Amino acid sequence: MASSESVSAGTNGRRGRRRSPAADEAILAATREILVTSGTSGFSIKEVVERSGVSTATIYRRWPAAHDLILEGIRSLVPEPVPIDAGSLENDINAFISQFGDALLRVAGLYAADMHNSGTDSHLAEEIRNSFVEPRVQLMGAILERAQGRGELGLLPDIDESWDFIAGPIHHRLLIRGESFTAEYAALASSVIIAGLKVLSGQITDRKNS
What we know:
By secondary structure, this protein is mostly helical. It has two domains: 17-75, Homeodomain-like (Arc Repressor Mutant, subunit A); 79-209, Tetracycline Repressor, domain 2 (Orthogonal Bundle). Helices cover 70% and strands 3% of the residues. The protein has a two-stranded antiparallel ribbon with strand order 1-2. A hairpin with a 5-residue loop joins strand 1 (7-9) and strand 2. Helix 1 crosses helix 5, helix 5 (89-116) crosses helix 8 (183-209) and helix 7 packs antiparallel against helix 8. The longest helix is centred in the middle third of the chain and has 28 residues, at 89-116. It starts with 6 loop residues before the first strand and ends with a helix. Mean pLDDT is 84; it is low at 1-16.
């Protein structure tokens, strides 16, 4: 009887193993468990093998390097950001904060473990930023540009500077203080962030006009 990775003919006539969705999910499930308890710094393929019950060879056929599996594990922890266009700066920021808070909650254990274990290597940290942070920065940039087009903001603040003010409070509450992320807090944070963005935009506009 063929195994879950049964032998099959490839398009070029050579025979190879059919990729097993069950093995994929077992590997990713083990990867997620390790990441949220041990972070990237405590991650090892050996532990994935022990938790998933698959062989080392099976893992490396799918993910040639450990950092490839780590990134896939993080992507499977957090869904891609959903486009937001709720008609106003206030509604867009409210929706964004809720979405971003949910995403951070999913990776809070990973961040906490890495902070405790002296973090992750710089190359992997950059790849995680590109995978997790950059799509959300781009989403926020689109929100600010629409707000400017509606006349809700004057000249736009630098998106990276804006990101610090937007993401900072949520990051601090969830990952530094370890507090819960409630609808009440999300609404309060949104109000503070919107006010701050308007102040930043006003200052930039005043400097431009002076």
